[in-house]
TrEMBL record, chains A, B:
Keywords: DNA-binding, Transcription, Transcription regulation
Species annotation: Streptomyces misionensis
Residue ranges annotated for the HTH lacI-type domain, each copy included: 2-56
Protein name: LacI family transcriptional regulator
GO MF term set: DNA-binding transcription factor activity; transcription cis-regulatory region binding
InterPro entries: HTH_LacI, LacI/GalR-like_sensor, Lambda_DNA-bd_dom_sf, Peripla_BP_I
Amino acid sequence: MVTLADVARHAGVSASTVSYVLSGKRSISAGTRERVERSIRALGYHPNAGARALASNRSNIIALMIPLRTDMYVPVMMEIAVAVATTARTHGYDVLLLTGEEGPDAVRRVTGSGLADAMILMDVELEDERLPLLRATGQPAVLIGLPTDTAGVTCVDLDWSATGALCVEHLAKLGHRDVAVIGEAPAVYERHTGFAERTLDGLRSRARELGLRVVHRPWEGGYDAMAATLSRIFDERPSTTGFVVQNESAVEPLLAVLRQQGRAVPEDVSVVAVCPEQVAVQASVRLTSVAVPAQEMGRTAVGLLVGKLDGRETDDVVLIAPELTVRASSGTAPTIP
Amino acid sequence: MVTLADVARHAGVSASTVSYVLSGKRSISAGTRERVERSIRALGYHPNAGARALASNRSNIIALMIPLRTDMYVPVMMEIAVAVATTARTHGYDVLLLTGEEGPDAVRRVTGSGLADAMILMDVELEDERLPLLRATGQPAVLIGLPTDTAGVTCVDLDWSATGALCVEHLAKLGHRDVAVIGEAPAVYERHTGFAERTLDGLRSRARELGLRVVHRPWEGGYDAMAATLSRIFDERPSTTGFVVQNESAVEPLLAVLRQQGRAVPEDVSVVAVCPEQVAVQASVRLTSVAVPAQEMGRTAVGLLVGKLDGRETDDVVLIAPELTVRASSGTAPTIP
DNA sequence: GACCGCTGTCGAAGCGCTTCGAAAAAGGGT
DNA sequence: ACCCTTTTTCGAAGCGCTTCGACAGCGGTC
């Protein structure tokens, strides 16, 4: 193993000089720097992470806590995780992967051991039990998701409320008067994951302003469940012509059942989805959708965290504005015959 | 910050005693152990990861390299990653998340810096460029996937060749004589990712033995592409009655197009999928499938790695035997009218 | 020419832990 | 009571790095 001392010897300088070349924290003459850099390359030197962490009290690692469960948004989670990992690298950080399994203990462990300099938490619940700990330890953290109380923590999220409003506005503009929302699995609501409730709230209040009627049905499971859900919706509100889907795994079942029932999209009913771009484009009908900006969320979270670690002042809550892209699944509401 | 020395003082013992209580590498009398443990809890002590890594030359971190691209098997990747993270924790390891982006450099960096004790590589290509490095450094590593040359590395994978064979056997047993394989995107083959080619080889050679005819068509993209692919297949081989799908994102398009063409599953055509259990169960037709045992792969990989790190002798190549579950998408071949 | 303020470099201390050899304590036989 | 073995505990060295204060040169100033 090549150590800093080896490099110093090879370059004919002291260890501290090599260290300063590496960190740039003191000025080093061009000649010396050059010589040291050449030695580093010649010997294939890599600074020892542990020693560095010990001496500098900084690990250059960001912990990312992903949910263990896979009942929702797996591709979104994956995309965020990959974006976090790549962005972190460009800032010189590595990413430690924690699963929600350990829960608050993981926060304690990572903070206490100095394993990571900061944390990114996903799958944040409205009253997340990890928050008090985070506030108490003063560990720099960014949440992806928006808890009820954002005091002392930084958050990044899609503006779900605006997303819901945007969907219903789009349908209203096309003349739809009765809208059905196919929501997440009941478990998601029970857990008080913020985004599901917020979307619904935003959608409902905008619908009220615009004079639309809304029914909301959670969904989970398979095609049969979807068929049942749809019959119920059309029984209760026969004049339903607009659909909002917030659950990417519900997209294909919904389209399939509609097709099977002989309802044409977008002639008879319009569908607006909240889902990753890719899902919208690859669906059997190209979907009018509000994209879930997974990458942007991951990138932003890392950006904020690095800002904090560098002592910069950062925003407390970053809400990403939703953007609706019109594709082939929405159109003018059918005129009642 | 609470250090080991603080604990020692609090418990009235020396630092080394505390260390031995923690590591269990020397016997400590029950009384002393008790006292030390009480102090640890009282002070809320967590060993400093950096110091530990420096002194012991072990970071207790496993690096997991996941592919950057998301053109395939995202849920499988995610499931493996989560399984790796959870299993690693039960062995006292944390997981560092690397993306393929850095490529071989990541291997060099992580090995050189002592950031991780070992690596798990996913998305292994037949002639993976990270392999020579791994062999050279002697870094303990486990590949998820099977390269051409497995010398000096440990691999875990589903036995794809047997998987292909199993699928075609099942169809043969049901009386199908002409089988079509809907394969991965062409890019996957061009990259020489082992599993795609192996499945196909296994399937083809078994088919030859059983006297079945096979056509193979890569697929990628949307429903239109699937419709085109199917017409071509039925034009060229009108007597095709068996389908094998190896691409989970192709499942719904295939079923949808078949339905649209008025071909009943399983009465007119049978479909066998290679995909995660969940996809098979939630599809619009419950699919006869060979499950991709993502969790098992992740768990096994960690198990092997921990074994290596503990100096145990481990297998070099662990091939997981495929299991075919019969569901509603396959049945007796229709008799030619 | 003595003095000043630079810039560039060095030496040493110390980060918190593990680990080795050795000392101290505790039994066990005679 | 003694010696010998075994168990338990301690002290000190050292892992590879960062960082602080100090020092050596250097050109410029009065």
